[in-house]
Amino acid sequence: MKFLIANRPDFPMAAVEELAQGEFGLTGKLTELYSERDLNFRVSGGDQGDFVLKISNTLEESALIEAQVQALQFLARTAPDLPLPRVLLGRAGQPVVTLRGKDGASHTCFALSWLPGSVVSDAGLQPTDFRDIGRMIARVEQGMRGFFHPALGGRGLLWDVRELPKLAGKTHYLGAHQDWADQFIARFASNILPRLEKLQAQVIHGDIHGHNLVLGPDRAISGVIDFGDMVHGPRILNLTNALADFLHDGPDTLAIWSALVEGYAGQRRIEPEEVELLVDLTLARLLVTLLITMTRAEEAGDQADYIRDAGFGSTEGLAAVLALDAGKVTARLAGAAGLSAPVSGQSVAEMMARRGKVMGGRPYVFYDPPLHLVRGEGVWLIDVDGRRYMDLYNNVPIVGHCNPRVADAIAAQTRILNTNTRYLGEHLLDYAERLGALTGGALTACAFVNSGSEANDIAWRMARAWTGNRGAITQEFAYHGITEAIDALSPSALRAAKTPDHVRTVLGPDGYRGPFKHGTPDLGRRYAMDADRAIRSLAEAGMKPAAVITDSAFLTNGVLEPMPGYVAELFARIRAAGGLCIADEVQSGFGRMGDHFWGYQHHGVTPDFVTIGKPAGNGHPIGVVLTRPEILDHFLEQTAFFSTFGGNNVSCAAGLAVLDEIRDRGLVDSARDVGGRFKAGLLRLRDRFPIIGDVRGMGLVFGMELVSDRQTLAPAQGQTDRLLGLMRDEGILAGSEGVLGNIVKMRPPLVFTAADADFALAALERALAQL
Ligand code: PMP
Fold it and tell me: What are phi and psi of 160, to 5 degrees?
């Protein structure tokens, strides 16, 4: 590996003058400029203006010079506004000329226009200047999109951070930082490089720092120079190399970095995967700079001080960056990149006080202290301190937090058209037809709303209209939503109020804790028979059931597994009494239970209504009632149903993208397979930890019931809350559920992988061991 550059070209002045005039037609005064490896002259006062004449080192590959010249010519076409050097063509119309040295070696020569001003590192920069610099980096980058030259791919340039592992043997130069550097380089090779390879790449300048930026008299950037370090590589390195190189120019590193990131991101969007790597890539560049500088200093012997003083890299700079909290820096830079709400730096107590004022005196948040989340990605949630949590709780982002396909579909449609169902539109028709097809053609008529509650509300109104009945039957601890009519069907939400007169509750099919235990013959029918009591009770009050509503996964009843025959028997009884059947698929639909798209398919029934919400838009608000055409028609005869936002173009685009993701990524089958693996792990934990009384679930929805006594089933409610806190500390988020609050509820996004399942199980095991 070569660290020192030798063989600077050596030509008498007369030969240079001959080159300037003879080949490029340049008259004017020649002044030699500093260069580490080439022979450079400023040609000033000539007729054509000022130029830089470059005679390259013999070691410089002519292909690389050709690449530089071509890049500048490309930029002159794609980004003519940018203040970049222009290539002067020689007399014969060619951009480069070859000059033979005394020793016969050939040197490549070319001339570029001179950019007036002074290099930035002399200029004492303000924060706003850094924003301009960030913007300029992105503009040059954008100008180079589509440019390529073979010499720039796989170039192996030592300054390219991707070459950092090659410097692993040099870390002894770092003294106290050596151990850190060894560990960092190992992590860089195993973890960061593979992630870097997946990022968008192109030819980048890669070396925009103070010595390569020219500032005009009005402080505006009047030039970007030196394209000698161009490589084909991840675009983000353009920015992170600059973050590392601007470290020495001011005391407040974070302010400088934020300004650079803000300026850059204002010009081209930084992707979340890029933001996550900002700190590590900056550290990598700092290390590369330091290690190359120190190695060169060592090899230079008596020139060592000169090389060190050239100003590239200092261990103090590295120490200052290492003293920063990487998570907080990332969060702040994410804010500067416009990728998260700007982080105010407010404490939890301050935010809770503000919340209490605007959201009521019972500000219900999870966890103590609560989580302040700033970003989501796949199965992960990231808090304000940059800590990552695996999300086993939220059932809405079914195809992963901030799923790019869904986000893109929403963003694209937002820019094209967003209006309502009073106009024709393909998205709406496609979405409705796809949903209907997913019911096997049983329920093909759709009413579009904006939430699960509204979907249930409309289904309930349709059922009343169709049957002419008033009574309702619901599970004893069900939850179906917030409207007045649906609150009445949600016993789990009724705090002080009592169940209204037209509502009867029936037993949840709980073979673990309920009155009939697993193993009892005819268990499903025994539970379903409770509907007879409810129907009789309604009749005694002069009512018939308009509908029964069931959540196919019985989440709020404690995540109950499908009990053979139960729902079929229940529906049969309701129908015999004149009522309709609503399958609330807000939680259980979209493949959540594995094997089938809908939860009701696990019960072998066909409902009269399917209601959807939560995951339908992966977080974008969508609610739909699916029913039979005659039921919808009947309803529309009675009422002028219309929802302003329901079924709007953007919602339908989001809904279609979710369906595409589930189909294309095989998420229903994956929920079954990964869910099976996770459940097997939970069952192993039950064998080890007596507090786990029962493990239930199918697909990717689980309940783990905690008891202090496996015989009496005494609920371990306090322990459940403690366990959730310990799980949070171990980096996994879950919730509690059930009448007694002693069931740990887990519903990760369906993009949950086998590796995620293993990670979660290991974390859960550690949490249980501390309980
Ligand atoms: N039904 C079920 C089964 C639910 O879990 C919920 C929400 N937790 C709802 C309906 C209500 O949905 P939304 O909050 O979107 O109104």
Answer: -75, 120
